[in-house]
Write a structure and sequence with these properties.
The structure holds 2 protein chains of 2 kinds.
Chain A (H helix, E strand, L loop, with lengths): L5 H12 L8 H12 L4 H11 L3 H10 L11 E6 L2 H5 L2 H12 L12 E6 L11 E3 L2 E3 L4 H29 L1
Chain B lengths: L5 H21 L4 E5 L2 H5 L2 H15 L4 E5 L11 E4 L6 E3 L4 H13 L8 E4 L13 H5 L16 H6 L4 H6 L4 H11 L11 H10 L6 E6 L8 H8 L1 H15 L3 E7 L3 H16 L15 E7 L8 H8 L23 E5 H13 L1 H5 L9 E8 L5 E6 L4 H8 L9 E6 L5 E4 L9 H7 L7 E6 L4 H15 L5 H18 L7 H15 L3 H5 L2 H9 L1 H10 L12 E4 L10 H5 L5 E3 L5 E3 L9 H5 L7 E4 L14 H6 L1
Parallel strand pairs in B: 1-2, 6-7, 6-9, 7-8, 10-14
Antiparallel strand pairs in B: 1-3, 3-4, 4-5, 10-11, 12-13, 12-14, 15-18, 16-17
Helix pairs in contact in B: 3-4, 8-9, 8-11, 10-12, 11-14, 18-19, 18-22, 19-20, 20-22
The chains are: A alpha+beta, B alpha/beta.
């Protein structure tokens, strides 16, 4: 389990402090925390419960009801595959499978090196570009299995390039 | 003593907007309007905008770049409207960064309008065809989306300059009763799906003798395949806000909430900004336009639960609970958010209010049908040539919408079915194409109006698989309160999954039918009541497909992957061609002894990439169902094996 640092504790407290201690603030607080940390930790949910004067179980029950909330940190490159109706009709499932096969993880999981995570989303509202996948916030339209490979390769190449530059920079400095 | 009326207060604001526009007009600069809603951005509008800026700077041409919302022509994105003085305004479609540079150099610098890349002009002229002659533009009747795509959604003055908030200032001088009467008379029916008369709902709220009343805009658009609410909010948020303020004035509400899906980050940003701007000008908040009327309007982000589109579940979610549907009555309009009378209407309903009050109920009734007056916005997606948003008068038939306005089915395929009303709507076959689109005719045919999502399917779509897909969705989204919905949909899904895998039983069809009826009867809210619709309609209209799956283990549309196989026709495969090999993600394609290609049926994941990759002149990759009909070609022994010998 991911350890919560003192600094993160502080951040959680700031998020919670911005809202009035009433039940109606629950969902907005959780959204704010997820915006900050990209997921909801057990610690964060306990703190929210204390602030609102309800049990942690209540908070967890509400959080798990809504699809937006996740309870594990996502990968650095969060991949979301749209499986709305238009994407489904145009083969979204095949795209999802290709990501899963390429990365060796299932939907809802994160790769061991914490680089990638795959999620399915119901509809991102770009149906005219179906099938659609998101990498972070960027939408990729008209996906095809070959494009999946290209996308992941692109990220790997970019990472290698950055590492090379970093190494070069460091050797220049020394 | 000088008396300020709402009109006088508003005139000052409008003068400001007009002054600003005049200053811009006097510069005489060309204008480039770029559609920057979510679909535009996904299609590359940001890159296009940068390219325009760069090209204008390189050529040293002064022009004004205007980020606007969406016109609804998703197939043509990125869509750009160029106003060059001396020319009619011209639309360019699919404007890539390269095209942007070309438009700047050829059109703005050299005066060549690039006839081969333009879509059409918006004004009569001798040279360029007018867009209004295209079926897409000719049939459309824009009321809700009239200003979308022409104004900057992040600039309230742009909306005001196009006549925005004028109606509000005029109506604040009338009595709330007059406004209510006009809405009742217009015959407007809620555009969220159920089609409840908006005027009746408002009257009930008005008659409630409780001080606190709430107005909620339902923008929790969860139907996969529908995105008109998002586009309206991203393109013209102020028209929705204006409608909400008018509603609050008519029913006497003091608090308002816009409930938007958190999955729509751009819409959230645009609305947040619009609310700030409207408040800054005194159009919402305390003492609107100097009157005694105050209306506090805020934004609430939904967290991705489909059922929250149901009004009682939505209220639960705002109050901080699980979005579980509640028993009605009491209806929210009697006892809603925190027990206050609450009017909940869809985005499109609120967006219709200002035009109705501006031009009158009679005008509104002159469009659409007798029982469903006005216009409706549809998002038409799936297998159509020109997907996008279309606003048409109610009562236009499906054939006109799909085959004429949206250009029909691509790739010379045949039309098979149209799915209307989101996951809980129904699938209608070709013989229903002449059904007029209005609340009552669609319900009669077994579908429903829903919020306006229309998915078109061609002959390659398997109806059993589509029903399975929708059940998969509704089953996951069931809130879990009613047993029939929670458990029943899961069983329906289980049976459909079995059938699509070729493990269906003869008794399954009867079970599907009975279970569907039970779920409809035993569920409290709209989700459960309508979840079995895709099963019921596909069973009614496409029964032979179910039977083929069960009896012959054959998928007639060759879509169910357990029942189909890909193979390469050796007579058509070209010797030495490698096109398919690289396309295969699992290396299932190998070379035969004759240097042709074949598919290893055990490795194949049936993604269909090889079929796309195979050059058209060969078209050697074939799809077949049932799967065992595919010829099995043995893999030649590997070279390593030979070496070992």
């Amino acid at each position: 389990m991911h350890e919560i640092s003192a600094e993160e504790q502080q951040q959680i407290a700031v998020c919670i402090g911005a809202f009035a201690p009433k039940r109606g603030s629950l969902v907005p607080i959780l959204q704010r925390i997820q915006d900050e940390f990209a997921y909801l930790s057990g610690e964060a949910m306990r703190k929210v419960a204390a602030h609102l004067g309800i049990t942690p179980g209540e908070v967890y029950s509400v959080a798990t009801f809504y699809n937006q909330f996740r309870f594990h940190p996502p990968g650095k490159h969060a991949i979301k595959v749209c499986l709305g109706t238009a994407c489904h009709v145009r083969g979204g499932e095949v795209i999802l499978e290709n990501f899963q096969r390429k990365l060796g993880i299932r939907e809802g999981q994160t790769t061991e090196d914490k680089e990638f995570s795959i999620d399915r989303v119901a509809c991102v509202g770009c149906c005219a570009l179906a099938p659609v996948a998101l990498l972070g916030d960027k939408v990729y339209g008209h996906m095809a299995p070959s494009k999946v490979e290209g996308l992941i390769l692109g990220i790997h190449l970019e990472k290698e390039r950055q590492e090379r530059e970093k190494a070069k920079h460091e050797s220049n400095n020394s | 003593m000088s008396q300020t009326t709402p009109r006088i207060s508003f005139n000052a604001i409008r003068e400001q907007a007009e002054k600003r526009r005049k200053e811009l007009d006097e510069t005489g600069l060309p204008k480039v309007h770029i559609g920057m809603a979510t679909c535009g951005i996904a299609a590359g509008a940001l890159e296009t905008k940068t390219a325009f800026e760069q090209a204008l700077a390189d050529q040293n041409i002064a022009a004004r770049i205007h980020a606007v919302g969406c016109l609804g022509h998703c197939y043509a994105e990125p869509l750009v409207l160029v106003e060059n003085p001396g020319w009619p305004p011209i639309f360019y479609y699919g404007v890539t960064p390269g095209n942007a540079g070309m438009i700047v150099r050829a059109f703005l610098r050299d005066g060549d309008p690039l006839l081969e890349t333009l879509l059409g002009a918006t004004e009569p002229n001798d040279l360029i065809p007018q867009v209004k002659d295209f079926p897409r533009f000719a049939f459309e009747k824009k009321v809700i989306t009239q200003k979308s795509g022409f104004i900057d959604p992040e600039d309230v003055y742009d909306y005001i300059d196009h006549g925005g908030y004028e109606t509000l200032s005029a109506c604040l001088e009338k009595s709330p009763g007059d406004i209510l009467q006009e809405v009742v008379h217009s015959g407007l029916r809620g555009r969220g799906g159920a089609g409840f008369p908006t005027g009746t709902k408002w009257r009930l709220a008005r008659e409630a003798e409780i001080e606190h009343k709430v107005v909620i805009c339902n923008a929790d658009e969860g139907d996969p395949g529908a995105y008109m609410d998002r586009t309206i909010l991203e393109s013209n948020p102020h028209q929705v806000i204006e409608g909400m303020v008018l509603c609050a004035y008519a029913v006497g509400a003091s608090k308002g909430i816009i409930y938007v899906r958190a999955e729509y980050p751009l819409a959230v940003r645009v609305i947040t900004k619009a609310l700030q701007q409207a408040e800054g000008l005194g159009l919402i908040g305390k003492n609107i336009l100097g009157t005694d009327f105050s209306f506090d309007l805020s934004l609430f982000q939904g967290s991705g639960a489909f059922v929250c589109g149901e009004e009682t579940a939505m209220i639960q979610s705002i109050e901080g609970y699980r979005g579980v549907a509640q028993h009605r009555p009491p209806y929210p309009v009697e006892k809603g958010l925190y027990g206050w009378p609450t009017v909940i209407n869809n985005v499109k309903t609120f967006a219709s209010i200002a035009p109705i009050l501006e031009r009158g109920a009679e005008w509104y009734r002159s469009m659409g049908t007798d029982k469903s007056p006005g216009t409706a916005v549809f998002s038409v997606v799936g297998n159509v040539v020109h997907p996008g948003l279309v606003e048409i008068p109610m009562g236009v038939d499906l054939r006109t919408l799909i085959l004429e306005i949206c250009g029909g089915i691509p790739n010379k395929k045949a039309f098979k079915a149209v799915q209307i009303g989101g996951p809980s709507g129904g699938c209608l076959p070709e013989r229903f194409l002449d059904t007029p689109i209005d609340f009552d005719s669609l319900t009669e045919a077994g579908a429903m109006m829903g919020s306006g999502g229309i998915v078109v399917m061609d002959e390659d779509t398997c109806m059993v698989e589509v029903a399975r897909y929708f059940l998969d969705f509704t089953q996951k989204e069931s809130c879990g309160k009613c047993t029939f919905c929670r458990v029943g949909t899961k069983h329906l899904l289980g049976i459909l999954e079995r059938i699509t895998k070729g493990e269906g039983r003869e008794t399954d069809l009867k079970t599907l039918q009975e279970l569907s009826q039970d779920i409809k009867l035993g569920s409290l809210c709209g989700l459960g009541k309508t979840a079995p619709n895709p099963v019921i309609t596909s069973l009614r209209y496409f029964r032979e497909e179910y039977e083929a799956h069960i009896k012959e283990k054959r998928c007639p549309a060759k879509m169910c992957r357990s029942l189909t196989a890909f193979y390469i026709d050796l007579d058509k495969c070209a010797r030495g061609c490698d096109a398919c090999v690289g396309s295969c993600p699992v290396e299932a394609i190998f070379t035969t002894k004759d240097r042709k290609k074949a598919v290893d049926q055990i490795l194949c994941v049936k993604c269909g990439e090889c079929m796309v990759a195979c050059p058209v002149e060969y078209s050697a990759v074939k799809k077949i169902s049932p799967a065992q009909l595919a010829p099995i070609i043995p893999r030649p022994e590997k070279k390593e094996d030979k070496k070992a010998e």
